[in-house]
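Deliverable D4.2, example record:
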Amino acid sequence: MFGLLCIMGLTALMAMCMGTVRISVGEVIEILWQEIVTSLWVNDVEAINTNKIIILELRGPRVLMAMLVGMALAVAGASFQSMLRNPLADPYLLGIASGAACGAVIALMLGWPFLPLAAFVGALLSAVIVVSIAHRSGNMHPHTLVLAGVVVNAFLASIIAVLIAFSSADATQGIVFWLMGNVSTQKLAILSTITICVLGSITLLFWKARNLDLLAQGEPVAKQLGLEVESYKWFLLAITSLLTGIAVAYNGLIGFVGLIVPHIGRFLFGSDNRFLIPVTALLGAIVMIVADTAARTIIAPSELPVGAITALAGGPFFLLLLRRARHSFT
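Output generated by the structure prediction step:
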């Protein structure tokens, strides 16, 4: 765990060094030390140099956002896979991310300022619909769940397309670019709110990790062991929808992070959610930092959508899992 934390820190540090303007590791550390650790605010020429602005106002907030998005999507994916006992469960594939995007687009069209709340409501409604469709005789069949997600995804995509058709040309361009998945640089106040929501949600899931392990054994077993299955499932749906909604509201649709990262975590550390949840959060942060750094440096000064980078890696991984999927998931 400590090793992953160190890797995440090094990855974030290297990401802040890379870009159109190359900044040395030593200078990045010096800037962060002065600003974050010692909180030195000096009104002179040296304190407002170009590299300091790049790190503190552009790359630093963006790297932090990438970390939070990776944590949110990865932990949401791990929770869905354990809850549904399905190796193919992922907020993107199940249409839950599309539900969040649909809610966010509606909020944008109506000029509603509470974008994350709209995305959360959309994600929660989508999760309930997909789970209800796939639930047959008390079992969640992997292929049925994926098909339900495909249907809901297609339906929500059509709603989004209709909404875009009624928007102005400038708004359409912005919405389409956002839907492709792009890590955005946000102000400190917004980042603070997102940090509280993401870390708070992950802490709640970690606190209830034993219950998630019980649910992963099957609902009959969990009920016999005293777990209130229905209320706990609603708790999980609410928390995972919040994580997905927060990620989508500010960064659009970024797929396959919630599919790939939990499997890497299980391969390295096992299926115990008391270890898997924090491990998945750290791995998700690392993966998203790397993906976002690649997206903004491969064709610099232009950018690729980070959603395209994750899809390139996640598509073949999903096909492999689809071939190996079984009717049970442990």
